[in-house]
Amino acid sequence: MKKQLKKFIGANLKLNPVSNNSQSDLIRLLTGYVSEEVGKVPNREVAVFVPTIFLRETVVKSYIRNVGNILAGAQEVSEHTQGAYTGDSPSPLWLTQLGITDVLVGHSEDRLRYEVLGANPNSINTLYNKKISNALHHGLRVTYCVGETLDQKNSGRTKKTLEEQIEQGLSQVPIFDLDNLIIAYEPRWTIGTGKTPSEEDIRAAHQYSLDVLVRTCKIGDDKYKTRVIYGGGVSPENTSGLLKIPCVDGLLVGGASLDAHKFSQIVKAA
Ligand code: PGA
User: Fold this and answer.
1) Reported pTM
2) Which residues line ligand 1 (CB under 6 A)?
3) Which fold would CATH assign to domain 7-268?
4) Which of 57, 130, 178, 199 lies in disulfide reach of 224, CB 3.0 to 4.6 Å?
5) In this structure, which residue's CA is closest to atom 9 in ligand 1?
6) Of these residues, 107, 148, 163, 206, which one is catalytic?
7) What residues does each domain of the chain span?
8) What's the pLDDT tens digit per position in 224-245?
9) What b/e readout covers 112-144, taking b as 16+ CB neighbours within 10 angstroms?
């Protein structure tokens, strides 16, 4: 693992119709990012994941990439490249045309969408495998979210869950694409709750995820640059501690990214 990589800080923007969030709220937030200079912090690589409805070329180019020096990400991607798929997530071709460089796959809230329809975890991971391969094939960088539910944690199934999500979700990823892959360990019970696991639990989950990745993709230990980042309950207060944990190569920030000042404190934390 090459440790000189910059820490990746992703803002997973949870804009919400219940809060009446609109395009102008997004622009206001992104303008806040620009004035806080979150894209210019040394040794940090910052990406913002935007809900599909707000993805516009002007938003991506004018407010995120050119002015903000921030990478633009989508919160979903289709497993199909072309063809008519009414109602599907966006094709990677459309995303790259908009100037998007990054996508999220497998976020807990997305998994839940399939779980409530009765899909089993194996078939969800297999679907993610297709989405990830398709996105990587078209030059997008993928942040693949993995993590256990509270029930899985309490019944001692954290490692088993991570193993299945990584083995099944990444089995078709070619070695040469691994530098374009980020694994986000996001325990599902921490998302939006403000809770975090102990530092030792985070370290162990990250190390285990790397071990499974090495086995799944049949790679030598030091021959790839896949980062493993942590997400769930990240705040300005706990950022420094989280970034000091060995194997934590960055953070995925949900709620706190909706406040430009808080997000900037997270990006700038030592
Ligand atoms: P949170 O969410 O930071 O609000 O816990 C994280 C996420 O949804 O990625």
Assistant:
1) 0.95
2) 12, 186, 190-192, 231-234, 252-256
3) TIM Barrel (3.20.20)
4) 178
5) 254
6) 107
7) 7-268
8) 789 999 999 999 999 999 999 9
9) eeeeeeeeeeeebbbbbbebbbbbbebebbbbb
